[in-house]
Amino acid sequence: MKYQSTRGISSESLSSAEIIKQGLARDGGLFIPEEIPTISLDEIKSLCSDSYPVRAAKILSKYLTDYSYDELLADCEAAYCEKSFPDGAAPLVKVHDNIHSLELWHGPTSAFKDMALQIMPRLLSRALVKTGEDRTALILVATSGDTGKAALEGYKDIDGIKIMVFYPVDGVSKVQKLQMVTQTGNNVNVCSINGNFDDAQSGVKVIFSDKDAEAYLNKRGYFFSSANSINWGRLAPQIVYYVSAYCDLLSSGEIELGDKINVCVPTGNFGNIFAAYLAKLMGLPIGKLICASNTNNILTDFLNSGRYDRNRDFHCTMSPSMDILISSNLERLLCFTAGKEKTNEYMKALADKGYYEVDCDVKSKIDENFKGYYADEASCAATIKTYFEKYGYLSDTHTAVALYSAEQYISDSGDNTPMIVASTASPYKFAADVCASLGHKKPEDDLDALALLKSVSGMEISYPLKDLDKREIRFNKTVDPKEMLDAVKDYLNA
Ligand SMILES: *Cc1c(COP(=O)(O)O)cnc(C)c1O
Fold it and tell me: Which protein residue's CA is at the shortest distance from atom 4 of ligand 1?
């Protein structure tokens, strides 16, 4: 299996190890597989008796053909082990009627990014060996909170890699900060900056494109790499849990082999829902894919009108991981439906004018598979309350956006196909807003919010968020944005 860029008209074909190492294509495009492997109903049936790591290894082996099955199985077993996922990797919980919650947040940081970031570093580590790389990869991450912690947990103690995370000193929650500054592992470093998330992100970008910095690293046996969500190594593992959820519905007798399911995903960068689309293209019986957004509903508008227009206000919502105006992975969908030439045009228009409009035939192809809905803040809060009171199901703010969107779709369409709703964070990860949604006074302190939510719900606090204030603080350095490179050098020389 080889991969190409979404933009290059006659581009080179690369192996999966090469593209996992490289991340973004040289022409600025994203990597996509040259063909989509298939999964038959018989294969799906036989996966039912496999554990999650085995399901993952079997599905990944269809894409990562330059990795042996044994390598993939070893990595999947290490990534999705019981210690990291004590409640299982992706349990499916029946919420009510035909609505099932696919809980992707039982990993080491209580959010769904763990599903990819627990395995991708292992794939990268092998990619370095496979491509004959003898330098150490230095991963730099700018984070607004969640991605940084998930990356730290994923890369810690992985061979051939070091990771350094920058976060805005006053731009993350107390829980997020505690999670990062107490990070364990001997190849990790964390540094806060005097600035906001954009300052952190621009600072990392400047370092990545600094030729002197590159030479400095090279001389010491390092090269820069990123943990970006557009990396294929993060996307491929996300296909697995949709297939796995289908198997679980089969095993519990909710569906018969071959029956269709629908999927609803709380969407930011369009990675998670694109993985569900790939599962459908492979042959998993999926009907509709419901793309759920918050008040930043640029994708809802795009799916309704065919016009993607980022000339609009940005809103800070209680589902911050979906506060995004540029959904990078949408480029992959455009490439699949419109081809490379048009994708190039659209991306150029987006860069130049801030918008593009797809042709009618492209729009109707997208319509066959996708529907867009969104939940505003009030609907999100009301959904959290209703689901808790009526169904005894406690959801986080991101999942609530999807639950609301799924219901809107069902009432508009009358389509009662079993619906899998991707649940992307533990309710404890956004405890203060969940408490407020349930009708309590919003706690000002994050740690108080954890305790309040526990007493209100009676549900155990997710293990990664327990006793945060009792852990050893390992990192307390703060620098100005212009000193970020010096901080990197200090870390490497320490
Ligand atoms: C990242 C994230 C999302 C959005 O996922 P995408 O793949 O970017 O669409 C949704 N919910 C949570 C909690 C997240 O962390």
Answer: 268
